[in-house]
Structures are given as C-alpha cells and as structure tokens.
Amino acid sequence: MKIIEVIGNQTLSGQIRIGGAKNSAVALIPACILGSDDITLTNVPDITDIDVLCKTLEYLGVSVKRASQSLVINSSNMENRNIPQELSGKLRASYYFMSSLLAKYKHVEMHFPGGCSIGSRPIDQTLKVYKALGATVKEEGDLFTIDANELIGSHIELDMPSVGATVNALIVSCIAKGETIITNAAKEPEISDLIDMLNSMGANIKGAGTSTLTIDGVEVLGGCCHNVIPDRIEAGTYVILGCLVGNYLTIDNINPDHIKSLTDKLYEMGCDLEINSDNIVVNKSENYKSINIETKGYPGYATDLQQPLVALLTQCNGVSKVNETIYENRYMNVPELNKMGANITVDGRIATINGKTPLKGCEVNATDLRGGACLLLAGLAAEGKTTIKNAHYILRGYEEIAEKLANCGAKITILEVAD
Ligand code: EPU
What we know:
The protein is an alpha/beta fold. It has helices at residues 22-32, 48-59, 85-88, 95-105, 124-132, 163-173, 189-200, 232-245, 260-269, 306-313, 334-339, 369-381, 392-395, 401-406; strands at 2-7, 12-17, 39-42, 63-67, 70-74, 107-111, 136-140, 143-147, 155-157, 179-183, 204-206, 212-216, 224-227, 246-252, 272-275, 279-283, 288-289, 292-294, 316-323, 344-347, 350-355, 363-365, 385-389, 411-416.
C-alpha cells in the first residue's frame, strides 16, 4: 500500500506548475483511436489514470509513444478486443472506449466502468445516446454488449448535464451519419477541450461551452497535435492549500477563469489572492469568515473541489454549510478529518462545518481521490505528523505531488508499505 507522510504547519512559498487536466486527457486518449493518423498530445499529466489508459491502448494494438508529458498515438494497427475488467474497472473514463470502439467497429463488449465510489454513478444517459443513434444494448450483469448496423444522428436531450454522457455522445456521433444535436449537455472546459481536438482531427462540432452541441457526422477523422488544457481541479486544490499555509505561493500555468466559482468563494471568506492572466499568488490570512457552498455543473462550484475546500472551512470562524448536489457519497473524508480535530456533521447531502478548530496530525485513510486531497491539505496545515493510508487514490489525479510540494518547502514523503 502507498502511504503519504507529511509534517504539517510548514509555510509553503515558491511556484507550483499545474499539469494538464486529468478529466480532459482521460477523454482525449480514448477519442484518439478514431483518427487514422498520428495524434500528438502534449501537456498530458503524469498520473496513474493515464498509465491505465496507455495500457488499454496497447492492449488494443495501438502504438503509444510516451515521453515526459506527451503521447503520440497511432491506431492504424488496432483490433477491436474486449477490454479486460482489470483495466476497465480501474477508472470511470474507461467507458469512453465503449464509445470510440462502438463508433469505429459498430460492436463493443465492456464491463461497467470503475472510478471512485462517491455515488452510484449510473451510465443510463450514455446508453440512451447509443440507443438514440440506433444501437442495441444488451446487459448481462455488469457486462454490456452494444451493436449497431449503422449509427445515425439524432436529437438527444440528456436528463442531466452529465460530463461522461456528453463526452460519450460527442465521441460516438462525430463519425455517425448525419446530424446529432445534444441538448442539456455539460459545459465543463474539458468538454470544450475534447471538441477542440475532435475538430482538429476533422470533426464538425459546434456549440462548445454551451448546453446545445451540434455534430455534423463526417466519414473519417485524421491526425492532429493537441495541447491539453491545465487541470483546474489540481490548480484549485493548491490555491486552497495556499490559503492554509501559503506565503507568496504561486499556482502557475492555469486558466483562472476555470476556477472563478472557487476564487469568488475564497474572496467571500477573506482570502488573499492575486489573480493574474495565467497564475494566482496566494498568501495565508487570519480570520477567515465561514461560507456556504452548493456544488453544481460548470460554471457552478465544482464537486471535485468540494472535499479539498472542506479542509479550509475547518479554519473559518463560524458555521459553514456544504450542499453536495452531484454525488450522494462524497463525504467519506469527513470522519477522517474529524479524527484530526475538525468538528463536522453530515446529514444526507449537507455537511455542517463548525470552525475554527485546530488540526492535529494522526493516521487517516484516503477513501477516494479528492477526499484524499482534502486529508493531505489538512495534514499540511496540522500540527505534527499525518500519515495518509491508501494514498494511491491521490496519485490517480495529482502528478508529482510530493516533488511539487517539497519544492515549496513541504515535508512530504511517499512510501510503499505492506498492507
Ligand atoms: N448521472 C446519471 N446517469 C448517467 C450519468 C451521470 O444519473 O448516465 C449522474 C451521476 O450519478 C452524478 C451526476 O449525474 O450524480 C453527474 O455525473 P457525471 O456524468 O457528470 O460525472 P462523470 O462523468 O462520471 C466526471 C468527472 C468527475 C467529476 C464529474 C462532475 C471524469 C473522468 N470524471 O465524472 O471527476 O466529479 O464529472 O464534474 O471526467 C474526479 O476527478 O475526482 C472526478 C470524480
């Protein structure tokens, strides 16, 4: 098991360079197999989720050349093989291959995708898209077999603006026959990034950043070079950390517009932020005010920054309330945070954080990616040593986390220990 040990309460100064967005890269990579030529991706984050997707590509016979933060993908010799559950069960984004294989071969068999257990995370909206385009879906336990004679464009209204269903709809429809219109689509920047890449490959997709996407199917897609957008969740996590322990901590290579819903809330709390065109400089302040947040789809407050923010809310004076509207099980970090000295109660979707309470280092357990990040932030702000077990969750989404933090003065070590 991987563990992270930190000695807290050290001031962090210097620069943290943000990598490419995990949730973009994990959609771009499966979409690459639609292209007939080389696709070069740059600014690809060096995280374990990308390792799994590269293994999946190789399993399908796709050529993958990986250098630091770049990938060259060529699928001219690929085969349509059933992706084993050991790979698809490791992350949610594996089901983007369901769409690219279906689009390319009109037949796919795949198990229910993996991902953090933060809620039930059904895939009904994606199946609705496949059916609307003319595919048949057979479900046996958690095995899905999807077939189509041909895929024909259609008008699909999503029941909710699901990121995954929007990605799948884009991938499956861009080489379908005729026009597809997706309404109530997700507007996340990672969706716009995917649209940019598909259009560079020759797709014809309009409406990026809006809730209506129009896809005019084309026969073939070619190659392209694409630079992955910066990771707004990694950026937001470190901005929050700067509010806890920063002294001129610069979070660099970011698009501050993508985390405006966070920085607006931080200003409301009284945080000291200097927002520039591609970086934010953060200083710790005293006497933060309590606030309330409600998680929403973009441009609302991101659910992925809910758990990291809770670490900071423990240091606000008064009662803060969080309403987690996206995932029903995204408070597994709370009992662990309470062990460190927080005073948080959870009632259904609402968490009530009673601040301010001092945090003390202890042994805690990461139960999911962003919950793990929350514990790491708390550990870096706490007195003494914090040991985070099951740290592999954190490494799924934060590249070179120990190096980036140690460069700014954090005392952090990642260790491998027997389970
Ligand atoms: N939903 C359904 N049916 C569906 C799809 C979604 O009911 O067919 C529900 C979900 O249960 C959830 C809500 O709709 O309550 C939103 O789910 P969505 O499909 O938007 O999420 P996702 O695609 O599974 C992606 C990110 C998550 C991020 C969410 C929301 C990836 C690989 N994952 O998940 O990222 O929380 O969008 O922004 O892009 C993370 O990075 O830690 C992470 C969990």
